[in-house]
Amino acid sequence: MLVAENLDGFYGRAQVLFGMSLSVGAGEVVVLLGRNGAGKSTTLKSLVGLVELGAGSVAFEGTRIERLPSHRIARLGIGYVPEDRRIFTDLTVMENLEVGRQPARAGAAPWTPERLFDLFPNLAAMRDRPGGRMSGGEQQMLTIARTLMGNPRLVLLDEPSEGLAPVIVEEMARTIRTLKAEGVSVLLAEQNLHFARAVADRAHVVEKGRSRFAGTMDALMGDAAARAAFLEV
Ligand SMILES: Nc1ncnc2c1ncn2[C@@H]1O[C@H](COP(=O)(O)OP(=O)(O)OP(=O)(O)O)[C@@H](O)[C@H]1O
Ligand SMILES: [Mg+2]
Prior knowledge:
single chain; alpha/beta; 10 helices
């Protein structure tokens, strides 16, 4: 579904990605693991046109997207949820969802607020509440829900478990497994190995802007050197 090869990524003149490659199959959940500053967020941004690319290619369902602007990539079906929550604080939950609405995609039932309230039950109870009067975890859920209103086929989630209370982290893991069951592919950046094991089929370990390991979660658990590359000491 998504194949990125040999990406060199830059912020101005500073190179941050060095020949990064990764792939996400249809219906797969793939996690990028890496220490602070390893290049996880930059890798996600490089897939949606938010990082300057010196070299490399990104193909999404057979279409080359590495030179396309972000809004066109979104329209092709890649949803991106950045690290910082980007809800409209003056708009209600319902209004935030409407802002994200995009046409349905062939072969998949479109997301509606009602379907999303099944997926995020605590949002259902606050549909008329302004976004600014929600907790961080609730805002995180709303950001993901609003992205799903665009009916993406692949969702990029940057540290979805970060800063959430343990019970909400469990809920987030359930949500990601439900998305997979609904046929949505997921690529997430994480530092929480426990969370990654609960949701992911495969992992890429990112170190200093390079892919250090690629394989199944089981293979990663059996590879002490790959784990040492991202676990904080
Ligand atoms: N906007 C920016 N301008 C310049 N350098 C940046 C920018 N954003 C990140 N960097 C640098 O790029 C490198 C990779 O950062 P990135 O944010 O991708 O790491 P990360 O793996 O997501 O880390 P974290 O776990 O802290 O979120 C770091 O050295 C960082 O300092
Ligand atoms: Mg990051």
